[in-house]
């Protein structure tokens, strides 16, 4: 089982789906942020899995994964900054209440 | 990593340095905007020169992950002018709202580096990173008026959906990489070439990857049904930022498409042709139909920018339909769209100089009387957006349509749809003209003074808008070189 | 004849417009007279061209070619044959007349008005002279914007609705035409091994259409697109409803140009492009178009009968009269074509004059409701006489220009099918009906209470107004007695078009037996 | 000490067990992240989830990634998140609804998504590359500094930009409501 | 000589232009110029006519080419004139009566504010009429055709303040247009089949042996005839002429009695060969002619407006002429055209003089007993009435009798019979008119009564001058019957047609059939007169009788339907009003509704519909990120699905 790429990929897919669910369903900006982190990690898992199963990819895999982590970090920074900024204006982290821009 | 490499990526380095320099200047002379502005614009000038120079020696760096060719140069210069113009338009808007210009410029230039990287990168990973580097500053800029709740709201929507789509895109990227075994565009293309030539079957996994990537990109260019962020983000953002967002990231995303879908996945175009056709039709139509009902000019222009994405997609579709001209048309349209749209937003920004002025249609009532020049320029940009000759917008449309007609088949119908859309679009563009020249303002607003930078920018955009329509030949050769550089 | 005369004619107004743009806003008269000067200059140049034109010489004259977008073989190519010459002179003439006629009525934003008017002239002249499809399209669209502004800014109370309707309607047609133009150009390029050279050059395209001919599919599609664009401009039933609105709202001079020139763009397009490039398609669609023309003829006349608004009445009369043009074109008969061209010219003169006259009364009463007027003959005899003159010309009274064109078209249609001629001729009755009735209600009877209230403002025609109408009246008489002046000029055009259609001998079969 | 390759009697490889356990933990905690009412607990669950993921990386033979995962995520990001949570915590917040009105369609689409991915994965023939190979950390560094210089630089710029902007946005200025 | 021919119409044209431009200044002197030019062109006309009739122009007349009018490729019409004997005869009639009417108008219009305008119009008419007569090409005829229509329009509506006048003018023009449509189509047919519009050339081509025409000759002939029906007010287009009496009386005399209304007759006579080759068409002409004759005669019975009686009488006389043409009595038709021109002109001018005397009163019920008060008018009018009634040896007798005679001898007995009855009716209503106007007790308004006086010289002299030909013309050119001067003149014109039609040309035999026919017609006339005397009285030197209104009452009571029918002109006006004004108006209104609601509605509908759709699509943008995200997720699913499908195939 740990011998089958499928297992890893399915696992990552699952994580990705869960993340997307969180993103679609949660109201709190920060939990949406966390969901995105989940999704990014799902991708990382896939990448690592590819790396560990395909010879050619092995060295690159780790690097790419690292990059992805870094990107995730950057996104998180920006995201949290924005969240805080809007929180200052709206006094609520609940995204579905930010709907003065519409139609 | 050789000296040659350094020369090749010198524009990039220069850009980063400019960004840093701007910040330093600001630290040195805090609160004064002229030095920062000067640094930024001069720096951009240098970057442009370097780009031109580097463009003379096409080649690759970093083992083929960074390519300099006609396309790169063309796009880079386009991006630089976009950023320069945005910086020119910004101060008049930011200062009254006491928002600093330095950070603005710096962040913007960081975004520029991202865009330039996209234009140049021939490596999937680099592409992704570059994309992030382009959009992350975008999120920040959208929220730049941080005490304005609308700005931040638009920003957070933009950010959340943006990173959602990034995740999706990345997922697809991972699969494509995993199945082709390389991040190098060339290798990927070769790998897929086998598949296209029937050497191997297109595996579902790869298809999945393609689907995810397409979705991610479609989001970035704001194609329907992935466009939702556009109106809100555009309306919320500070107007100069909106102007930038409406062209910079869009053209950037198209650059990504060129590098990725054309460069890497070109051999599979038969597979994504249908998808692009559908996307194009949907995008044009929805964008225009909704724009018809908007009373806020910024929001209206947001929807119109969606529609223009649709027109550009027609070019892409024509390419997928087997016509090199499609790419040329796409590039030409991109350039034309850039200047006319930036110009239009610049006028809106100029009108909003006084804080508190909304961008609703009523703001434009009587503008033709109040500030005739501004009114006339706005009319020019709107006519160009409509596609009335002799303007850039017209020629861009004609070019794209020509490509579509050449490709024939379903694309002819797409061309007709595009034209009907253009006709419908005329309604809302001209409505602004109606307000400017044929309606009297409800409350008499006094005319305002605008900075020289703004005027300079407006003249540049308007002159280009006309020239690109009257004398398209020069740009024409440029874009055809660019398209050829991409190969087909 | 020096080269560049056509460019001169086309762009002198533009120069004028630019000059006006730099004139001080607070000196409207400067703008007025500069505009008039520019228009008159253009007119003189056009007359100069007219003199230099050799009717016997076949093909295009004064041709000017310069590469514009070589990548697609798009050229800046101007040239004139009889048809263009006639219509260009008509344009330049009506333009200065309209500008003169706007001196009084247009009191605000004079600068902008004059600029739009001159740019409008650029577009119109360009359309008639362009020999490159792409260039033609550009001029075609250029016409749109100034007219949009003229109606929208200086128009009546409901102007915005009218002008937007006008623009959108026209745009739908023209944009599809653009697709057709591009498709045609591409088809040419495709047939010439990917060589773009000459792909939009009308003469080469015509030659191609005459020899190899475009594929049927393309012809049918492209012709349809062209047809839509032109039919909307003319306008043909059922695409005509923008016209009454536009006319009612437009300022007088706007209506004059609209009726006098813009409607002709459609007819010109048919004769110059649609027929020569897509002859087979033209023949295929001809019956339908003929039927539509007949409907337009009779329907327009009948609807005009019950119009309460003077301008609307004239507008519908235009729909009816332009029916003769399309009919004359699509019966593919020599007489028909001659008649159609003549009818375009005459309609330009007569309807233009009628709109000027409507403007005269509107300026005094600020009303155009026929019901409110009556007995004008007593108060304004000269006006009544002039109006009567043009009214009769419009009725098609022999001896005045209106008659000849109509009759030629009718003769042609008779040769095509007596039944068609029979139906078309019925219009003679309806036309007389609505025009005479209108005239009776306006000018006969006792002076109405409404006009009494106007009192002393209800003056007879002023010198300026007379000045604008005298040239038109003269031309109406001259062309009525010596239509040959026009017919000789367009001989070449007619022959080449009919040769292209391979139908030049249609009427011959009935001869000499 | 060394364990036998395979667990006696039930003939399952150790790392498989480990994999299963970690996977279970990961999925479970992930679910908690997206479902828990109290957002602070969500944050903690996320840390758990990432920990488990790190474990899986190790099994997959990417220790370096695993390490970074622990450092960056469990270290930096999670803390950042928690800070953000503190900053934006309103008294009323946890009391309110956790889920959007569209939780159900969200769930459905998530399931579909997982389904499609699974199907695609299953349907794909990984041209017999499912023979795992051991990896050496040394190789990575090498690759990183030869082939991936450019990306590396970019990432740094990216972070720089993010920080500058982030600082600007988060900075509290006079006139801001506190 | 050519130049003279050109001058004949040119002079009145000049008169029109000059009077039109400067008339306002000339004011009361306006007539000098106008009358002057007409007199001159009369002189010229006389010279030309004399030359023509004495064979000065040879067998095939004199042709004058002015210029190529419409050179449209194969279609080439030239403006030119053509004089042969027929033209000459017409010239005489038109110029003579025209001149006299001009003179007469000087007096009649003396006090009218639009004095100069009137003369301008009259000149315009003279010009148009002369062109019509002289024209050598069908299209030029058509031009003149419309121009006379125009001048008649202007003159009928001369008193434009009067609504009835304006309406009558419009009616006249439009009804004429209906005929013109036919004429125009006829012209097209002729051109399409012959390639020329020169009258003689084209007809030769049409009728040449073995000529093949796309449309039957009869149809062409009838189309041409349609035009004639319009101008000459033949049933069913007769309705405009009575209303045309709204115009000043000189106009009625000149245009609506003596000249313009004869244009139709002239046209048919001019194209005689065409008709001769289309017997069916001839039959129709005869039928319509004779029917019009009796129809309008019957209406004339009960009209009380003196001018309307004359108008209907004109109709019925025109009917005679067409009947004559129809039966192939070409010469007789032209003969009657001439005589009728003179005596009907006379009668109208007389009626004008009467109206003048009783201060613009036209209703005969308010006249009576005027004989002594206005003797000259009375005398001349009596002559006119006798002439029209066909009592030998006055002009009317010869022409009318010739028509009837030839109708009978050419085998159209029914035409002859109806004609005979009409002759009697004519005599009756004419003397009813005389009785009501001049004889019996005066019913004139008390205020007016004392001021009644004879018209001035300038008016009476023309009357006398017209009376002379009304008496003598028949004897001069019509005697011996069927062999008089006129026959000599017109023989070359109609010879071929007669040959073709094979009409009988036996010598006139007073003591044969002709005598009987004469007897019959004279009896009919006398009968009519006597009945009129018995009912409406008479005051002549020998016999005198009081009118019997009560007997009139009795008779009308006995045949109420016929009476009302006659009184209401057989309801034609009402019928047309219903058809064209009411129903037509409805249709027009309906079409306009269609235009606004359906055609334009669709256009606007598309616009509004698009907006609506946009409004709906807007709703998608809820402003909630999660909704957007869901949308994207769904899009992603679809995208993935479609990709999988695409690659699966």
Q: Summarize this, please?
A:
The complex is a heteropentamer of chains A (103), B (488), C (513), D (178) and E (649). Chain C is mainly α. Chain C has 20 helices and 2 strands.
Please report the total strand number of chain B as a whole number. Answer: 2
Q: For the report, how would you describe the main beta sheet of chain B?
A: 2 strands, antiparallel
Q: Helical region count of chain B?
A: 21
Which of globular, elongated, flat, extended, rod-shaped describes the shape of chain E? globular
What does this structure look like?
The complex is a heteropentamer of chains A (103), B (488), C (513), D (178) and E (649). Chain A is 77% helix and 0% strand. Chain A contains three helices and no strands. With 103 residues, chain A is mainly α. Chain A has helices at residues 5-25, 29-53, 58-90. Chain A has a single domain (5-95), classed as Helix Hairpins (Orthogonal Bundle). Chain B is built from 21 helices and two strands. The longest helix of chain B has 32 residues, at 149-180. The mean pLDDT of chain B is 90. Chain C has 20 helices and two strands. Chain C is globular and about 75 Å long. The N and C termini of chain C lie far apart (46 Å). Chain C has helices spanning 5-21, 28-52, 82-102, 110-129, 133-154, 159-191, 202-211, 216-233, 242-249, 252-277, 279-305, 310-330, 334-365, 376-379, 381-395, 401-416, 418-443, 449-454, 463-481, 484-501; strands at residues 61-69, 74-80. Chain C is mainly α and 513 residues long. The model of chain C is unreliable at 503-513 (pLDDT under 50). A two-stranded antiparallel sheet of chain C has the order 1-2. In chain C, helix 1 runs antiparallel to helix 2, helix 5 (133-154) runs antiparallel to helix 10 (252-277) and helix 13 runs antiparallel to helix 19. The longest helix of chain C is centred in the middle third of the chain and has 33 residues, at 159-191. Chain D is extended. The longest helix of chain D is centred in the middle third of the chain and has 25 residues, at 63-87. Chain D has helices at 14-35, 39-59, 63-87, 103-123, 137-146, 149-170. Mean pLDDT of chain D is 78; it is low at 128-135. At the A-D interface, helix 1, helix 2 and helix 3 of A face helix 1, helix 2, helix 3, helix 4 and helix 5 of D.
């Amino acid at each position: 089982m740990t011998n089958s790429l499928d297992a890893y990929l399915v696992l990552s897919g699952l994580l990705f789906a869960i993340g997307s669910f969180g993103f679609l369903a949660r109201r709190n900006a920060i939990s949406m942020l966390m969901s995105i982190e989940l999704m990014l990690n799902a991708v990382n898992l896939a990448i690592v899995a590819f790396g560990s199963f395909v010879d050619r990819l092995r060295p690159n895999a780790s690097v790419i994964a690292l990059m992805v982590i870094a990107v995730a970090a950057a996104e998180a920074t920006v995201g949290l900054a924005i969240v805080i900024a809007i929180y200052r204006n709206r006094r609520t982290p609940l995204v579905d209440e930010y709907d003065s821009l519409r139609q | 990593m050789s000296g040659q490499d350094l020369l090749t990526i010198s524009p990039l380095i220069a850009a980063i340095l400019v960004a840093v320099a701007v910040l330093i200047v600001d630290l040195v002379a805090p609160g004064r905007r002229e030095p920062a502005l000067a640094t930024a614009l001069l720096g951009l000038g240098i970057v442009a020169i370097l780009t031109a120079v580097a463009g003379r020696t096409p080649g690759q760096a970093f083992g083929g992950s960074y390519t300099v060719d006609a396309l790169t140069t063309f796009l880079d210069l386009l991006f630089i002018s976009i950023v320069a113009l945005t910086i020119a338009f910004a101060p008049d808007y930011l200062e009254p709202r006491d928002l600093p210009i330095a950070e603005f410029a710096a962040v913007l230039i960081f975004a520029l580096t991202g865009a330039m990287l996209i234009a140049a990168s021939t490596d999937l990973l680099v592409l992704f990173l570059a994309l992030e580097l382009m959009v992350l500053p975008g999120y920040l800029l959208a929220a730049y008026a941080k005490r304005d709740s609308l700005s931040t709201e638009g920003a957070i929507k933009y950010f959340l959906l943006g990173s959602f789509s990034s995740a999706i895109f990345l997922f697809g990227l991972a699969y494509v990489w995993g199945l082709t075994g390389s991040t190098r565009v060339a290798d990927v293309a070769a790998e897929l070439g086998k598949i296209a030539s029937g050497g191997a079957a297109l595996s579902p996994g790869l298809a999945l990857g393609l689907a995810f990537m397409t979705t991610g990109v479609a989001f970035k260019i704001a194609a329907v049904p992935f466009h939702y962020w556009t109106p809100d983000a555009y309306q919320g953002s500070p107007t100069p930022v909106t102007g930038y967002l409406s062209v910079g990231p869009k053209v950037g995303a198209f650059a990504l498409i060129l590098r990725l879908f054309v460069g890497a996945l070109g051999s599979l175009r038969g597979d994504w042709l249908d998808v692009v056709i559908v996307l194009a039709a949907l995008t044009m139509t929805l964008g225009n139909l909704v724009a018809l009902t908007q009373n806020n000019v910024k929001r209206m222009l947001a929807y119109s920018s969606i529609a223009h994405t649709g027109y550009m997609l027609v070019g892409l579709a024509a390419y997928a339909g087997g016509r090199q001209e499609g790419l040329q048309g796409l590039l030409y349209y991109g350039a034309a769209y850039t200047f006319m749209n930036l110009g239009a937003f610049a006028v809106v920004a100029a009108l909003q100089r006084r804080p508190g002025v909304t961008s609703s249609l009523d703001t434009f009532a009587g503008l033709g009387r109040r500030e005739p020049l501004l009114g006339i320029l706005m009319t020019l940009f709107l006519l160009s957006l409509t596609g009335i000759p002799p303007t850039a917008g017209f020629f861009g449309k004609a070019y794209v349509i020509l490509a579509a007609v050449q490709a024939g088949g379903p694309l002819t119908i797409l061309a007709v749809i595009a034209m009907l859309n253009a006709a419908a679009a005329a309604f809302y563009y001209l409505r602004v003209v109606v307000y400017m020249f044929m309606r009297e303002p409800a409350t008499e607003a006094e005319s305002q003074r605008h900075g020289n930078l703004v005027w300079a920018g407006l003249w540049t955009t308007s002159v280009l808008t006309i020239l690109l329509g009257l004398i398209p030949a020069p740009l024409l050769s440029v874009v055809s070189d660019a398209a050829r550089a991409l190969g087909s | 004849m020096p080269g560049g005369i056509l460019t001169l004619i086309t762009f002198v107004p533009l120069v004028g417009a630019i000059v006006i743009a730099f004139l001080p806003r607070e000196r409207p008269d400067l703008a007025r007279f500069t505009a008039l000067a520019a228009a008159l200059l253009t007119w003189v140049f056009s007359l100069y061209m007219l003199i230099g034109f050799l009717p016997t010489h076949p093909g295009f004259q004064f041709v000017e070619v310069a590469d514009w977008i070589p990548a697609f073989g798009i050229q800046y190519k101007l040239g004139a044959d009889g048809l263009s010459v006639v219509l260009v002179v008509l344009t330049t003439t009506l333009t200065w007349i309209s500008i003169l006629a706007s001196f009084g009525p247009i009191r605000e934003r004079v600068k902008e008005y004059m600029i739009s008017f001159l740019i409008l002239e650029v577009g119109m002249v360009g359309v008639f002279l362009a020999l490159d499809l792409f260039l033609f399209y550009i001029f075609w669209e250029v016409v749109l914007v100034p007219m949009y502004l003229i109606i929208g800014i200086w128009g009546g109370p409901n102007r915005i609705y009218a002008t937007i309707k006008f623009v959108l309607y026209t745009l739908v047609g023209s944009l599809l035409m653009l697709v057709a133009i591009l498709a045609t150009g591409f088809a040419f390029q495709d047939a010439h091994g990917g060589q773009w050279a000459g792909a939009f050059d009308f003469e080469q395209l015509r030659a191609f259409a005459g020899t190899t001919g475009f594929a049927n599919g393309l012809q049918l599609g492209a012709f349809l697109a062209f047809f839509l664009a032109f039919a909307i401009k003319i306008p043909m039933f059922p695409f005509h409803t923008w016209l009454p609105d536009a006319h009612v709202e437009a300022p007088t001079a706007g209506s004059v140009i609209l009726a006098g020139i813009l409607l002709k763009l459609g007819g010109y397009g048919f004769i110059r492009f649609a027929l020569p490039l897509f002859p087979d398609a033209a023949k295929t669609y001809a019956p339908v178009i003929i039927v539509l023309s007949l409907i337009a003829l009779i329907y327009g006349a009948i609807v005009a009968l019950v119009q309460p608004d003077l301008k609307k009445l004239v507008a519908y009369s235009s729909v009816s009269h332009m029916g003769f043009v399309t009919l004359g074109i699509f019966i593919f008969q020599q007489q028909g074509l001659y008649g159609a061209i003549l009818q375009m010219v005459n309609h330009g003169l007569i309807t233009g004059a009628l709109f000027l006259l409507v403007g005269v009364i509107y300026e005094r009463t600020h009303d155009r409701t026929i019901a409110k007027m009556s007995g004008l003959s007593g108060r304004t005899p000269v006006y009544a006489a002039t109006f009567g003159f043009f009214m009769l010309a419009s009725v098609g009274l022999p001896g005045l220009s209106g008659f000849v064109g109509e009759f030629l078209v009718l003769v042609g249609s008779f040769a095509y099918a007596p039944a068609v001629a029979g139906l078309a001729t019925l219009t003679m009755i309806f036309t007389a009906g609505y025009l005479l009735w209108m005239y009776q209600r306006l000018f006969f009877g006792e002076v109405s209470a409404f006009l009494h209230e106007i009192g002393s403002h209800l003056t007879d025609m002023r010198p300026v107004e007379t000045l604008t109408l005298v040239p038109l009246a003269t031309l109406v008489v001259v062309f009525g007695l010596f239509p040959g002046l026009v017919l000789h000029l367009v001989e070449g055009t007619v022959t080449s078009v009919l040769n292209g259609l391979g139908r030049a001998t249609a009427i011959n079969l009935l001869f000499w037996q | 000490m060394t364990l036998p390759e395979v667990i006696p009697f039930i003939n399952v490889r150790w790392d498989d067990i480990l994999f299963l356990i970690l996977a279970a933990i990961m999925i479970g905690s992930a679910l908690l992240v997206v479902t828990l009412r109290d957002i602070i607990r969500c944050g903690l669950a996320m840390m758990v989830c990432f920990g488990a993921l790190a474990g899986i990386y190790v099994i997959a033979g990417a220790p370096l990634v695993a390490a970074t995962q622990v450092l960056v995520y469990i270290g930096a990001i999670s803390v950042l998140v928690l800070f953000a949570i503190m900053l934006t915590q309103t008294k009323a917040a946890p009391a309110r609804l956790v889920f959007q009105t569209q939780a159900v369609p969200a769930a459905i689409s998530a399931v579909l998504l997982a389904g499609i991915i699974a199907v695609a994965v299953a349907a794909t023939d990984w041209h017999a590359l499912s023979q795992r190979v051991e990896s050496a950390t040394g190789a990575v560094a090498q690759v990183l500094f030869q082939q991936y210089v450019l990306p590396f630089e970019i990432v740094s710029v990216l972070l720089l930009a993010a920080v500058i902007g982030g600082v600007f946005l988060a900075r509290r200025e006079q006139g801001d409501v506190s | 000589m050519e130049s003279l021919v050109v001058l004949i119409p040119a002079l009145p044209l000049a008169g029109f232009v000059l009077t039109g431009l400067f008339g306002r200044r000339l004011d009361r002197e306006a007539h000098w110029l106008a009358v002057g030019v007409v007199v001159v062109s009369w002189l010229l006309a006389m010279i030309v006519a004399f030359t023509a009739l004495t064979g000065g122009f040879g067998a095939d007349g004199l042709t004058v080419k002015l210029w190529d009018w419409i050179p449209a490729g194969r279609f080439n019409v030239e403006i030119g004139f053509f004089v042969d004997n027929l033209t000459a005869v017409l010239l005489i009639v038109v110029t003579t009566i025209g001149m006299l009417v001009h003179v007469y108008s000087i007096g009649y219009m003396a006090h009218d504010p639009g004095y100069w305008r009137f003369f301008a119009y009259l000149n315009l008419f003279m010009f148009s009429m002369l062109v019509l007569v002289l024209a050598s090409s069908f299209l030029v005829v058509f031009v003149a055709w419309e121009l006379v229509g125009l001048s008649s329009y202007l003159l009928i509506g001369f008193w434009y303040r009067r609504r009835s006048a304006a309406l009558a003018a419009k009616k006249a023009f439009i009804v004429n247009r209906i005929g013109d449509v036919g004429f125009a189509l006829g012209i097209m047919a002729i051109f399409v089949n012959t390639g020329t519009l020169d009258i003689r050339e084209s007809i030769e081509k049409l009728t040449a042996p073995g000529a093949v025409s796309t449309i039957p000759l009869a149809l062409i002939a009838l189309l041409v005839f349609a035009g004639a029906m319009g101008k000459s007010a033949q049933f069913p287009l007769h309705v405009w002429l009575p209303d045309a009496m709204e115009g000043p009386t000189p106009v009625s005399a000149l245009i609506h009695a003596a000249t313009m209304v004869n244009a139709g007759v002239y046209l048919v006579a001019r194209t005689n060969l065409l008709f001769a080759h289309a017997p069916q068409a001839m039959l129709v002409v005869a039928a319509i002619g004779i029917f019009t004759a009796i129809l309008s005669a019957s209406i004339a019975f009960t009209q009380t407006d003196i001018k309307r009686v004359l108008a209907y009488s004109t109709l019925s006389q025109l009917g005679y002429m067409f009947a004559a043409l129809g039966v192939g009595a070409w010469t007789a038709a032209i003969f009657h055209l001439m005589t009728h021109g003179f005596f009907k002109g006379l009668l109208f001018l007389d009626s004008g003089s009467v109206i003048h005397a009783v201060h613009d009163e036209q209703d005969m019920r308010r006249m009576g007993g005027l004989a002594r008060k206005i003797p000259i008018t009375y005398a001349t009018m009596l002559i006119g009435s006798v002439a029209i009634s066909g009592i030998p040896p006055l002009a009317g007798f010869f022409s009318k009798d010739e028509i009837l005679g030839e109708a009978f001898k050419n085998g159209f007995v029914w035409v002859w019979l109806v004609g005979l009855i009409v002759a009697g009716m004519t005599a009756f209503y004419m003397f009813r008119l005389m009785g009501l106007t001049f004889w019996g007790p005066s019913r004139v308004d008390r205020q007016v009564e004392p001021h009644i006086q004879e018209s001035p010289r300038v008016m009476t002299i023309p009357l006398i001058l017209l009376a002379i030909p009304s008496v003598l013309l028949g004897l001069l050119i019509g005697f011996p019957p069927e062999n008089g001067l006129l026959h000599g003149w017109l023989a070359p014109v109609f010879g071929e047609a007669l040959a073709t039609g094979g009409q009988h040309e036996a010598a006139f035999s007073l003591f044969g059939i002709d005598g009987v026919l004469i007897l019959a017609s004279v009896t009919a006339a006398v009968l009519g007169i006597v009945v009129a005397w018995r009912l409406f009285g008479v005051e002549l030197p020998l016999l005198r009788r009081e009118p019997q209104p009560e007997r009139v009452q009795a008779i009308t009571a006995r045949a109420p339907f016929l009476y009302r029918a006659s009184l209401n002109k057989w309801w034609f006006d009402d019928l047309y009003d219903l058809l064209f004004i009411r129903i037509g108006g409805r249709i027009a209104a309906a079409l306009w509704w269609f235009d606004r609601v359906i055609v334009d509605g669709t256009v606007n509908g598309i616009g509004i519909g698009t907006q609506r759709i946009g409004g709906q699509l807007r709703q998608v943008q809820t402003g909630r990120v999660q909704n957007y995200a869901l949308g994207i997720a769904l899009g992603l699913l679809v995208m993935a699905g479609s990709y999988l499908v695409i690659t699966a195939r």
